[in-house]
Automatic annotation (TrEMBL):
It comes from the Eukaryota. One of its GO terms (biological process) is mitochondrion organization. InterPro entries: DML1/Misato. One of its GO terms (cellular component) is mitochondrion. Transmembrane segments: none annotated. This is MSTO1 protein. It comes from Erithacus rubecula (European robin).
Length: 226
């Protein structure tokens, strides 16, 4: 876990954002290259962290896991492959190639697991009737209840990205507001004023680590981490 955390939080960064496609949008029987080729314009996942998603946010490092998509041989047998994704030999290679295309320059690790996410009770039953029992997309609504969805494919990621700068800066501003400072003094037992100010300064410094032009030496650090 320490090695995993270090791979995402280099160059002074200590916070990551969580993303997930739940379920991962896929038709039953579709090959992974076809599924990801249809997602070239926009990633299928949604932000789970508590800040507003920003368009054009730069990714520094990420760890991505795809579950529930069958790991079949994906290379084209006849003729020229339709895309670079279709020329890959495995699902892991397809996902890695896709991430490098979507996030050029970012440090990306990826894993593909055949086992889907189990959604039987007590998992919340909030699924669309356009999902099959195995969580794949249907052309028309199914006859049985959405509670019949027993498993789903999932794409999830932890990502260190420039958008976190606004989250950390906003948190710092809230802590500087007079009501928040009063609350901090009364609730943080044992914290002196100078310790509180030092923590604020560390938070400001952390926010700066997520700026895309942070430090001339940042590129060298990131290159070393690769």
């Amino acid at each position: 876990m320490m090695h995993f955390a270090d791979s995402l939080t280099f160059s002074g960064r200590k916070v990551v954002a969580a993303w997930a496609a739940l379920p991962f949008p896929a038709l039953a029987g579709s090959l992974l290259p076809d599924i990801l080729s249809a997602q070239q314009q926009e990633m299928p996942w949604k932000l789970l962290s508590c800040w507003r998603e920003q368009k054009g946010s730069c990714c520094f490092a990420q760890s991505v896991v795809l579950r529930g998509i069958c790991q079949e041989k994906t290379s084209s047998c006849l003729g020229q492959p339709k895309s670079p994704l279709h020329s890959c030999e495995s699902s892991e290679e397809v996902l890695q190639q896709f991430l490098h295309t979507q996030f050029p320059g970012a440090f990306s690790t990826s894993h593909v697991l055949q086992q889907p996410c189990d959604t039987r009770a007590p998992f919340p039953q909030f699924f669309s009737p356009l999902l099959s029992r195995r969580g794949f997309l249907l052309d028309k609504a199914q006859a049985f209840s959405s509670a019949g969805v027993e498993s789903i494919p999932v794409l999830a990621a932890l990502q260190s990205c420039s958008g976190l700068q606004s989250l950390l800066s906003g948190l710092c501003q809230q802590l500087q507001a007079p009501p928040a400072q009063h609350w901090s003094r009364s609730c943080m037992v044992g914290m002196e004023e100078d310790e509180f100010q030092e923590a604020l300064e560390e938070l400001r410094t952390l926010a700066q680590c997520y700026e895309t032009d942070f430090g001339a030496g940042g590129s060298e650090d990131e290159a070393d981490s690769d």
